[in-house]
Amino acid sequence: MIELHQVHRDFLVGDQTVHALNDINLTITAGEYLSIMGPSGSGKSTLLNLIGLLDRPSSGQYLLDGEDVTTLGDVQQAHTRNRRIGFVFQAFHLVPRLTAAENVELPLILAATPPQERRERVAAALEALNLSDRARHKPEQLSGGQRQRIAIARATITEPAVLLADEPTGNLDHQSGGDVIETLERLNRRAITLIVVTHDAELGARASRRILMRDGRIESDKRTDRA
Amino acid sequence: MFTRDFLRLTGSALIAHRLRSFLTTLGIAVGIAAVILLTSIGEGIHQFVLAEFTQFGTTIVGINPGKTSTHGASTGVFGTVRPLTLEDAQALQRLPFARAVVPLVQGNAEVEAGNRRRRTTVYGVGAQMPQAFSMQVKSGRFLPADDPSAPRAFAVLGSKLRHELFASENPLGQRLGIGGSRYRIIGVMEEKGTVLGFDLDDTVYIPAARALELFNRDSLFEIDLMYAADVRSETVVKGIRNLLLARHGREDFTITTQEQMLDVLGSILNILTFAVGAIGGISLLVGAIGIGTIMTIAVNERTAEIGVLRALGARRAQVLGLFLGEAMVLAALGGVVGLVAGIGIAQLLHLLLPALPVHTPWLFVILAETVALLIGLAAGVLPARRAAGLDPVEALRGE
Ligand SMILES: Nc1ncnc2c1ncn2[C@@H]1O[C@H](COP(=O)(O)OP(=O)(O)OP(=O)(O)O)[C@@H](O)[C@H]1O
Ligand SMILES: [Mg+2]
């Protein structure tokens, strides 16, 4: 469960303060499927980075499963990102010199998981995405859709409770974008909390909870109960 | 993170830029090779010079007239110094630890035999010289133990002088004129070669008392005393000082042990080795700058990767370690290549120029590799700290 109370995030640009997030109050329960939409510069990425512990609020409180994580030190923050949060980026951000399998393995390497267990988990993750035959390929040898699905496998290899995706289909054509969204939604059906930032209205509408942002504020927050 | 994974990650980063890694490594390799080559030559010369000196034995003490103060000025200059005499040498002979005592007077003079003449070095010495300096008589015998104050006019030739004056003739029993006096040749020394440029074979040895007369001196140049190997040099110095103090009434002489001489010589040669090593070190500095530059470029190129690593749960310290690791692997590889090249070139030089002694002590090898690692650390620390300090959000945005 994610709880944000009166969260602000200000940036100082020159002698001007930009309120990227302005008094955000938001509670996201485990297993929700949430889309965040809004015009460019409305603060979507800033909100996502904050939830993902890549950034800290200027003021306000962030509780993750009831624990205040705004004041964690670097080591605990890193640990939390590693075990409890997955990230998917618009630009994929695979490490170009590592193979698909090695990229997926990275979070486990950082966590010092034993090699044997690592191999098994990576193989299973690639299998589940039908990418086993691409395991030894470098990112440059993969299509955009394949790269993004490798990135999803990497984000979820430590079985985090929350998956954050910032415009995950932004660099993809319609077809592979659909594949990627389906992959994400499949994970959500297996209880992962999925938060997707998108500009694509059709895509945003698929989420059971839809947030619209403007000027650093939440303008609307709509839910449809799942059938 | 496991060490194996750490090495795999750093390795993959270096292999991804093979050429650049190779060139950076080369920079360090050249530096280490230069240091190893120069210090190997320095150390080779060091050992060579020490061996030259110790061939005369190490249990020798030299006594010279005049007191050399620590400032290097001799009080002898001001004239109140008693000469070192043959009687002093005789008195030293009676010390319990004295194995051999050699009075020494040295000068140049013209010698003649038959119709041949030659300017040569004349040594006035005592009968125990061969024993004290581990020198061998080749034919005949050395100067006999005559009464030191009135020795017979005998002479012993160095091997070169013998050839110059007598060619294939037998010199034994022949007459030799030195400065107007006549001597009888009773022996020829074994060849000794040159030591530090002094030809020890172009010489003639005569009794010290006659040499004093010849050169019109009242003081010996030096008295050398060889002592028993089981006696400590401090004991020897004390014994000699007490005896000469009693005879001269004041300390107007200087005692130098071979140990002290070797110490001084050794430290001079060490400074030499260190100095040439430091010159080689300048090229290491250039190599270090190369590593620093490449690592700075690498951090700039890989900001997105750094952001991803952080997002995937890498601590700042892990990012720091990864980049430091790359710098150190580059330096360590360069170090190994440089060591092999440096030692190889040193040995090759020795093969081509056998007169040039080379020696590479293990300590230098370990030291050089350690220095290479430290250079990697020093050169990598700034870029790596920059990488670790990056804000992950900024790093991910920078495309
Ligand atoms: N590091 C920063 N320094 C200054 N201003 C910043 C910084 N990061 C974000 N901002 C500002 O905060 C506001 C929100 O930015 P954010 O990236 O969250 O927008 P966004 O909704 O993700 O936009 P887009 O849809 O274009 O990705 C913008 O006005 C932006 O200029
Ligand atoms: Mg954005």
Query: Helix/strand-derived class of chain A?
Result: alpha/beta
Class by SSE composition of chain B: alpha+beta
* Mean of pLDDT of chain A: 95
Strand content of chain B: 15-25%
Describe this structure in words.
The complex is a heterodimer of chains A (227) and B (399). A six-stranded mixed β-sheet of chain A has the order 6-7-8-3-9-10, with helices on both faces. In chain A, α3 crosses α4 and α5 packs parallel to α6. In chain A, a hairpin with a 2-residue loop joins β4 and β5. Chain A has one domain: Rossmann fold (3-Layer(aba) Sandwich). The two termini of chain A are 22 Å apart. Chain A is of the alpha/beta class. Chain B is of the alpha+beta class and 399 residues long. Chain B folds into two domains: 184 residues, no CATH class; 125 residues, no CATH class. In chain B, 55% of the residues lie in helices and 18% in strands. Chain B is built from twelve helices and twelve strands. In chain B, the strands form two sheets. Chain B has a six-stranded mixed barrel with strand order 2-3-10-5-7-6. In chain B, strands 8-9 form a two-stranded antiparallel sheet. In chain B, a hairpin with a 2-residue loop joins β2 and β3. In chain B, α2 runs antiparallel to α8. The longest helix of chain B has 44 residues. Chain B is elongated and about 100 Å long. The two termini of chain B are 28 Å apart. Chains A and B meet through α2 and α3 of A and α1, α9, α10 and α12 of B. The complex binds adenosine-5'-triphosphate (ATP) and magnesium ion. Magnesium ion binds next to α1 of chain A.
